[in-house]
Amino acid sequence: MDNLTREAAAGRIMVALDYPEAAAAEALLGALQGIPCYMKVGMQLFYAAGPAFVAGLKEQGYNVFLDLKMHDIPNTVKGGASSITKLGVDMFNVHAAGGLRMMESALEGVEAVLPAGAKRPAVIAVTQLTSTSQAVLNEEIGISGSTEAAVLRYAALAKQAGLDGVVASPQEVQVIKAACGSAFQTVTPGIRPAGADAGDQSRIMTPRQALMQGTDYMVIGRPITASADPRSALESIIEELI
Ligand SMILES: O=c1ccn([C@@H]2O[C@H](COP(=O)(O)O)[C@@H](O)[C@H]2O)c(=O)[nH]1
């Protein structure tokens, strides 16, 4: 793999803005100012700060991944996808466990409201959460077989539905790319710099390892947001990638 420029490395990082209110997220944005990362808004911040916060990120020029992981009946997901598309985000997601029709409905919801000529947001599907271990998958969720096989089944279904990619662990990137093609995007949480606390994550890799697997985007939250110096934490991750 060719060396990444600093800017390209930053663009592969999605910073998870997991905060209870807009002010805390804005403080982080201030600390990271000038570093061209993707910003990820998940349910904690979206339920607290809503569409206005997302609009503000877009006004500031950020690429935005809205990580709301929709999982509902097809008609409801279609409506949700239309509402999300109107926010102008660059990427959003659904759970592949909702099935083929539900994922197709998400795309229909996008197309129903997308202005002519506008770039549509990437729509991706969560395969198996990166907090899910092999034991949890088999014994609690009740899916037998390997995690890799379960992830691949959902990735193939997402591809069949016409989605742009999946959320998975960096550990599964190579098999996903082999099965679904190199253009099928992989967005990978479960990133932990060497020695960092895994917390509730189960299927983890370091930033460098994830890059070597060929991941398109790595989602990183607490290793940056819980650091006493988030800017230095992010810069040392970028340094690891170039
Ligand atoms: O399978 C998944 C899907 C989404 N996430 C989200 O990514 C970040 C990870 O944050 P860390 O603090 O780096 O663990 C978080 O917003 C999750 O909701 C995921 O971890 N796994």
UniProtKB/TrEMBL annotation:
Q: Which InterPro entries match?
A: Aldolase_TIM, OMPdecase, OMPdecase_AS, OMPdecase_bac, OMPdeCOase_dom, RibuloseP-bd_barrel
Q: Which GO terms describe its molecular function?
A: orotidine-5'-phosphate decarboxylase activity
According to its UniProt record, the EC number is: 4.1.1.23
Tell me where the signal peptide lies: none
Which residues are involved in binding substrate?
A: 18, 40, 67-76, 130, 192, 201, 221-222
Spell out where the chain crosses the membrane. Answer: none
Q: In which pathway does it act?
A: Pyrimidine metabolism; UMP biosynthesis via de novo pathway; UMP from orotate: step 2/2
Name the active site residues: 69
Free-text function comment from the UniProt entry = Catalyzes the decarboxylation of orotidine 5'-monophosphate (OMP) to uridine 5'-monophosphate (UMP).
Record-linked NCBIfam families: PRK00230.1, pyrF
- Its name, as the record gives it, is Orotidine 5'-phosphate decarboxylase
Species the sequence originates in: Paenibacillus spongiae
Lineage of this protein's species?
A: Bacteria, Bacillati, Bacillota, Bacilli, Bacillales
Encoding gene, per UniProt annotation: pyrF
